[in-house]
Structure prediction request, 295 residues.
Amino acid sequence: MQNILVIGSINMDMVMMCDRVPESGETLNGRDFECNLGGKGANQAIACAKLGGSVKMLGCVGQDGNGAKAIQDLKSFGVDVSCIRTVDGPTGVAMIIVCNGDNRILIDKGANGFLTPSMIDESVDVIKWADVVVLQLEIPMETVIYAAKCVKQLGKTVVLNPAPIAPLSEELIALSDWIIPNETESLSLTGCKEGTDWETVLEKILELGAKNAMITLGEKGCIYSCGKERKYGKAYPVKAVDTTAAGDTFVGAWCTALCNGNSLEKAVDFAARASAVTVTRKGAGMSIPTLDEIE
Prediction:
């Protein structure tokens, strides 16, 4: 078994269900409000832990009740939290509206914005421990780039989930061994128009300098590079209740399957099965399945 380090965001998700999204100036009644652990980094770390991976999390929380709860919840899911820092500021928060299974998300980075390059330097031992390091873009971009440099200098694998979407430098693309965007992110990254066939979009990402790339396509599965081949991974049809952590589950499950010795194709299928279960449940970390639930 190989080790995984997730460097990224830790949020508290405030989620509410609704039948339709309010128009500008309109107030509607929602339902089923919940406040749970989230953040792309935390979700991916939880997915790794629940699905059989050896995982540590490097991130920041605030000196508040949300921060204490986040650390407690991560530990309860099996994530090693020894690298998480508590800083003088509020824990990150995500406001999530779920309508007919689809979500809209607003984020206040809070403590996630305090994760600095110097903290990466202070964490070099845990980077040495890791075989694979997973990054997203809910922490400062300079920290993402610096972390990727450190990881590559130590000869480890960088997996970049470019979410939320932001312009990627040639340097960061070159440092990443895998880039895994979703549909919207891949179009933004490449400048392709909606409706462009996904093989073309994938080729555009590779032309930007990516060593390997995979685009997650929701209910349509995924497309990924495998050497010179381009392959599709199937999705498992389910009735979606909440898609909030689907992509994060996919990334974490895929990394875990690879680190546990599976082939690329088997890892893709494992990730598809895991994310299919996730979308049938409400919430983020709580919705991610365990290994027993998908085997």
User: Anything to note?
Assistant: The first strand starts at residue 3 and ends at 7. Residues 264-278 form the longest helix (15 residues). Residues 3-20+32-283 form a domain with the UDP-N-acetylmuramoyl-L-alanine:D-glutamate ligase fold (CATH 3.40.1190.20). The two ends are 18 Å apart (CA to CA).
